[in-house]
Amino acid sequence: MKSLNLDLAGRDGATHLLAEFNDISNLNYVVLALMKSKVIGCGAISKHNFNSMEIKRMYVSPEARGQRVGDKILYELENWSKELGNSRCVLFMGSKQPEASKLYQRNNYGSTDKYGKLKDIPDSICLAKDL
User: How far apart are CA 54 and CA 128, in angstroms?
Assistant: First the structure.
């Protein structure tokens, strides 16, 4: 998670307003991608509402990017969400994350209304996908 936080801070600079939503202490469903026993990516889900999970903390290390590691993590999180009885995934991301934007577009996520505390943060982009 430290690498993800450093990456986001580098992209967003002093205006890293979304950092307050990066707490991992209550995440119970986490997927790690490993290569030669080294973590190269991660992602998590948490309950959003009665039929939706929220995708959280997606990250792929720079040396593993371009190998569709993010697609594989996202696929596992979506399947896990379905196994838990959910029919939708939602997420938010910052506007300065073009790789993440491409990942979610490629995996059929579309724009949705901003939710919760994100409604007033101009840098946030909210996406959703029906499973």
Answer: 9
Residue 47: enclosing H or E segment and its boundaries? strand 38-49
- Quick check: 74 pLDDT over 70? yes
**Residue 55: which domain range?**
2-130
pTM, 2 dp: 0.84
Q: In what order do the strands lie in the sheet with 110-111?
A: 29-35, 38-49, 52-60, 88-94, 124-130, 110-111
What's 82's domain CATH number? 3.40.630.30
Q: Which of 76, 131, 123, 130 has the alpha carbon at shortest distance from 101?
A: 123
Measured CA to CA in angstroms, residue 90 lies from 2, 27, 123, 129 at distances of 23, 15, 17, 7
**Number of domains present in the structure of the chain:** 1
